[in-house]
Design brief:
By secondary structure, the protein is mostly helical. It folds into 2 domains: 10-262, no CATH class; 263-384, no CATH class. Helices cover 55% and strands 0% of the residues. It is built from 19 helices and no strands. It has helices at residues 25-43, 47-65, 74-92, 97-113, 120-124, 126-130, 133-153, 163-172, 176-183, 191-203, 207-216, 225-238, 242-253, 259-269, 275-286, 293-298, 320-326, 368-371, 380-384. Helix 2 packs parallel to helix 4. The N and C termini lie far apart (59 Å).
């Protein structure tokens, strides 16, 4: 499939060498989002053109961003998100062998010039981006001598540009013995390189061995625990072992900025699990039970979904603002007698009671016994006395 060679990319004018200054992290992230939208729009009508646009953008990332202060992590996160969005576009583009070869040559030059390893994800997916086995074999043969020389002469962690792209190509072409031979030159079972052997084991159907190898990489300093967890979850899902994946890794694999997002991602990935049970399993697996109050409310659950949550002091419970919002959602008839108590230990104590609309400014602790269901009336003493252990609603222990 031929692409439109006359197409002009708008983003090219915004990604020029040294186009951004020291404090341009936010602007750079914005320009990346615009470029992703432009490329994805082109992919709908001309996927080969979109693939060429991805290569063009990746070539320009380091030259454009080299003067930006990246200490905040904003720009690095934006680049990683961009690669996650665009690498599949590049992999799926129906380009011929000659076009692919040109793309790979251009990408390799960009990798060599990359000053802060922005394109590490491209290296990791190099074999998939090659698409053609003969092209992946070419790059593996080209890089093996340099990688072997670097790792043999500097056994304890020499850095060789293109090492991971070489390993990726060996996995793609199923040259597993050569892959194992190269990795044996490493003095430690580091996940950065070991993930390719774990992937090779999984592709050979050795799922349990792949998981055991990945778990072994956790003992190496500075390993990426989250990547290992997500890898193990993925290969178990691909093997059809969904229940095991859910209980071993699924509850801790989701990465999001809020508990609500974590819950939604987990529930979406495991639709066979009942949402209420997913929420309770997440609370048990991740802790900070009071922090899940808002997630449960926003997800549309009633109070009874939080019944395993103990009545806790302020430092382990939801914030007053969150609890206050809840009382304008549920009426007095919905959950009578089931309470969530919040005590402000920095000032006059007050409580918010599920199913009761408190007066402005909260309720005095002295009035609580008159408002509580008898089953929880004796729970006040431990909370009002910080020296005693927090109590749990009887019959609902986690």
């Amino acid at each position: 499939m031929k692409m439109n060679a006359l197409h002009k990319w708008t983003f090219k004018t915004r990604f020029r060498s040294r186009a951004y200054g020291w404090r341009a992290s936010a602007l750079g992230a914005k320009r990346l989002k615009e470029a992703v939208r432009e490329i994805k729009k082109a992919a709908k009508s001309d996927p080969v053109l979109a693939g060429d646009g991805v290569v063009t953008l990746l070539e320009r990332i380091w030259p454009s961003f080299q003067d930006i202060d990246t200490s905040s992590g904003t720009l690095g996160g934006a680049v990683n998100h961009t690669l996650d969005e665009l690498i599949p576009v590049l992999v799926d583009a129906p380009a011929d062998l000659r076009t692919r070869q040109k793309w790979m040559d251009r990408l390799y030059e960009a990798l060599v010039e990359d000053g802060v390893d922005y394109l590490s994800s491209v290296e990791d997916r190099w074999g998939d981006i090659c698409a053609f086995p003969e092209l992946a074999n070419h790059w593996a043969d080209h890089m093996i001598p340099a990688v072997r020389e670097g790792w043999e002469n500097h056994r304890k962690g020499a850095w060789v540009v293109g090492a991971t792209l070489c390993l990726s190509c060996l996995v793609k072409t199923e040259r597993y013995q050569e892959l194992q031979g190269l990795l044996s030159l490493q003095s430690a079972q580091a996940w950065h390189f070991g993930k390719f052997w774990a992937e090779a084991l999984a592709r050979q159907g050795q799922v349990d061995e792949a998981i055991a190898y990945a778990e072994g990489c956790r003992s190496v300093p500075y390993c990426n625990y989250d990547q290992i967890t997500r890898f193990c979850e993925r290969i178990l899902l691909e093997a059809g072992r969904r229940a095991e994946s859910y209980h071993r890794y699924g509850l801790v694999a989701a990465a999001a900025t809020t508990n609500l997002a974590v819950f939604k991602e987990t529930a979406r990935k495991y639709p066979e699990q009942e949402p209420r049970q997913v929420l309770l399993d997440l609370i048990k697996a991740r802790g900070d039970k009071g922090k899940w109050f808002a997630a449960a409310k926003d997800a549309g659950f009633r109070h009874d979904h939080l019944r395993p949550v103990p009545v806790m002091p302020v430092d382990r419970c939801a914030q007053p603002k969150t609890i206050g919002k809840e009382h304008f959602v549920f009426s007095e008839q919905e959950q009578p007698g089931l309470i969530l108590l919040f005590l402000n230990r920095k000032g006059p104590g007050y409580a918010r009671i599920a199913g009761v609309r408190p007066a402005s400014g909260g309720l005095s602790p002295k009035r609580l016994p008159d408002l509580l269901h008898p089953i929880v009336g004796d729970l006040l003493a431990p909370l009002l006395n910080p020296g005693q252990q927090p109590a749990v609603i009887p019959g609902n222990n986690p």
